[in-house]
Amino acid sequence: MADRHLEADTPELRARWGGFSFAPAWEAKAKTAIAKYPDGRQRSAVMALLDFAQRQVGEETGTQGWLPIPVMEYVAKYLDMPIIRVVEVASFYTMYNLVPVGKFHVQVCGTTPCMLRGSDDILAACKKRGMHKGHTTDDGMWTLTEVECMGNCSSAPMVQINDGNYEDLTVDRFDAVLDALAAGQTPKEGTQDPARHTVEPVGALSTLQAMVSENHDYRGEW
Amino acid sequence: MPKVTVDGVELEVPQGATVLQACELAGKEIPRFCYHERLSIAGNCRMCLVEVAPGPPKPQASCALPATDGQVIKTDSPMVKAAREGVMEFLLINHPLDCPICDQGGECDLQDQSVAYGRGASRFHEEKRAVTEKYMGPLIKTTMTRCIQCTRCVRFSEEVAGVDEIGALYRGENMQITTYLEKAAKHELSANVIDLCPVGALTSGPYAFEARPWELKKTLSIDVSDALGSNIRLDSRGREVLRILPRINDDVNEEWLSDKGRYMVDGLTRRRLDKPWLRRDGKLVAATWDEAFAAVAKINPGSSVAVVAGDMVDCETMFAAKALAGALGSTQLEGRQTGLDYDCSSLAAVNFNSGFAGIEEADALLIVGSHVRWEAAVLNARLRKVAKKGGKVFLIGPEWETTFPATFLGTDLSVLGNLPKEAADTFAKAERPALIMGGAALGKGALDACLAFAAANRLVKDGWNGFNVLHMAAARMGGLMLGYAQKGGIADLVAAKPKMLISLGADEVDYTRFADSMIVYIGHHGDKGAHAADVILPAAAFSEKPGAYVNTEGRVQFADKAVFAPGDAREDWTILRAMADALGVTVGFDSFDQLRAAMIAAVPALGREGLAEYGALPKGKAGISGSIEAYPIKDFYLTNAIARASETMQRCSAELLHGETFAEAAE
């Protein structure tokens, strides 16, 4: 996170993104988001609009998208709010990308449960493929970020690639996902453990066994 | 009225008070960084922790906790002591130990509070965070590694100044305070964040490394850069005023000061008139005082004398000049240099009657011909409060960037008698309607029409007077009280064709109209007035003489003398007294005390600090045509001789108003 910074405000950036405006589909979503708040509180929708803007940029660049300065200025103007307030929000939340990302934004969770379950190996596998934290590979395919808990601790370790979660990873399973993505396929999201459907226990139940067939009140046994 | 107990002492606190305020009422000092009386509560520095029962068994941030009945607050328990030490230790983790090279040293909240509440040593052996410098314009010097993220500057620019330009980017340890894309802070109150900053992150750029606070002599004075009479403190060392800071006066400037009032200080040492000059064969040549007074005596004007007063002179100087003119047999006195000729028979009609604090209560406000941001920057912050409280603000005149929601009604003055529906409805319903007319409106002769507007819209009622005139010159109200107003304005002086025109630092006068007069310029800067003068008598700037000033709300205030005038320059009144000798008349005073006593005898209101009484508002006459095409101030930073001589103000003007860029000096 220490590497987070705004992409420099250059004439090239202005030339590329200065004319940004919402495409009709995103505009409709933006209007819906604004309508959720009372009149005059339209700036409450800033997070949604930044997300839409990032996704539209993503569509235009074939990536997860990011937020160039002119795009943030567009959102600020759209919501009639000071640009610095928009930048505050965008720079606070790490799911807004402030610099361009590659086609696949590999976000490896490194928080304790994932770390205990082997996220270090996942990061090593990324490194082996030429990815560095906070950087995009030269071919524009991969951007690696280490992120904090994504809430998939019961299927750790996990990686989020663009909007998809890939869980129960081992180095082999992870490599398979990346290879599939690189080949243009759509690997199955969610758990990569063949023995698992979602986050149910693998093998026999070890807890709450009395609850399998009917509801059971454990309180008397505490 | 909740009753609380603070360290065993029971007291009643006002409804809505916070625990911190309750502790202060009890006389307890609560350390704090982010809390500020005039800003919203942030509660993010955690320095104000106290122990409160009932409540969770942990220290509570007192600034954000409402005081409620029956609370037992402890500010000196072991838990509070440990909490403060802990917070202080955390704050100092990333704060550099560079106090010896920090300009805040000696007046730093963090320094003081770490001495009072800190552990005295650090247990932190890891590397400290460093933050890259941010550019915030020519006035604010930043050292962001020192920032403790209290966000006072962010809240000030958003809430008080109304210009959202400072923000906190990123998060956690990487949080950084910056302006958008590091652009310069562009508003007239920007330098107040320097005072607000509790550490040395934002310090004064022009004053960088000039002096330490304990070396400075502090003199109480009054700002002369506009007509608000902001209360200031002059910090001087030796013969030089090094900086100007605002003083707290809730009736006038709260605790803010405009950038011009603060930073024109370096103009006090530049382009100064430090010896007399005489015009010989069309050229100014240096002279001695004897030669200068001989030249004045040679003019021998008899009673053909006129006096024009500048915008920054004190009442005593104007009274002394009036006495001199009177002794010579003339009453040709004028202070409205640019030719304004509004009727001054009732001073209530040209006064800011609501008062600066009072105007906050207005619920409908019409501003006629005033660019308030430039003409009275500190007052603009009050007008923002009007709008924030729900008051509606309308303006007549060319559009300018307001810092509050406001509606421009066009430039046509006839709107005064025929308000558009929205404005008319607002004023019809208003409890406390108010009007502010500025110099541009006075110049268009709109005073009568505005008075008529006041009568038609019930601007004056029991306990409320909403008729306000906003002047731009610090000397204006004092001058009007002393009779510096002719019926026809300065045109009357031109028509009188005086043999001798005494100019009291008047730099805005069109002197070509006085081509046949001998112009004696008594002033302090080699500015426009001095260029036209035949005799230049070097005088003292506002920092170099005691004096009384009357601000635009009719508030009489006294300034003290901080330093001596440079070179041969003398205090103005001594020059006028010596001129009386040279011209062979007596003026009736030999010392400053006698002068002031004579002035107070002539105008008793000038002897009482506080608001002068001007009587009832006269009736006006409706009907006006014409439109306001422009405001008198073309460049906020260069409105007077001191500011024009100031390098800082010149740079502000070039960079902030005219878009020039300056390369940063390599360090």
UniProtKB/TrEMBL annotation, chain A:
GO terms for cellular component: catalytic complex; membrane protein complex; organelle envelope; organelle membrane. The keyword Transmembrane does not apply. Binds 1 [2Fe-2S] cluster. It catalyses: a quinone + NADH + 5 H(+)(in) = a quinol + NAD(+) + 4 H(+)(out). Keywords: 2Fe-2S, Iron, Iron-sulfur, Metal-binding, NAD, Translocase. InterPro entries: NuoE-like (IPR002023), NuoE_dom (IPR042128), NuoE_N (IPR041921), Thioredoxin-like_sf (IPR036249). GO terms for molecular function: 2 iron, 2 sulfur cluster binding; active transmembrane transporter activity; inorganic cation transmembrane transporter activity; metal ion binding; monoatomic cation transmembrane transporter activity; NADH dehydrogenase activity. Pfam families: 2Fe-2S_thioredx (PF01257). Its cofactor is [2Fe-2S] cluster. This is NADH dehydrogenase subunit E. CDD domains: TRX_Fd_NuoE. [2Fe-2S] cluster binds at residues 109, 114, 149, 153. GO terms for biological process: inorganic cation transmembrane transport. The keyword Transcription does not apply. It comes from the Bacteria. It comes from Novosphingobium kunmingense.
TrEMBL record, chain B:
It is an enzyme of class 7 (translocase). SMART domains: NADH-G_4Fe-4S_3. GO terms for cellular component: membrane. It comes from the Bacteria. Its cofactor is [4Fe-4S] cluster; [2Fe-2S] cluster. InterPro entries: 2Fe-2S_ferredoxin-like_sf (IPR036010), 2Fe-2S_ferredoxin-type (IPR001041), Mopterin_OxRdtase (IPR006656), Mopterin_OxRdtase_4Fe-4S_dom (IPR006963), NADH_UbQ_OxRdtase_75kDa_su_CS (IPR000283), NADH_UbQ_OxRdtase_ferredoxin (IPR054351), NADH_UbQ_OxRdtase_Gsu (IPR010228), NADH_UbQ_OxRdtase_Gsu_4Fe4S-bd (IPR019574). GO terms for biological process: ATP synthesis coupled electron transport. Residues 2-79 form the 2Fe-2S ferredoxin-type domain. Residues 216-272 form the 4Fe-4S Mo/W bis-MGD-type domain. Residues 79-118 form the 4Fe-4S His(Cys)3-ligated-type domain. Binds 1 [2Fe-2S] cluster per subunit. Keywords: 2Fe-2S, 4Fe-4S, Iron, Iron-sulfur, Metal-binding, NAD, Quinone, Translocase. Its EC number is 7.1.1.-. One of its GO terms (molecular function) is NADH dehydrogenase (ubiquinone) activity. It catalyses: a quinone + NADH + 5 H(+)(in) = a quinol + NAD(+) + 4 H(+)(out). NDH-1 shuttles electrons from NADH, via FMN and iron-sulfur (Fe-S) centers, to quinones in the respiratory chain. Couples the redox reaction to proton translocation (for every two electrons transferred, four hydrogen ions are translocated across the cytoplasmic membrane), and thus conserves the redox energy in a proton gradient. Belongs to the complex I 75 kDa subunit family. This is NADH-quinone oxidoreductase. It comes from Novosphingobium kunmingense.
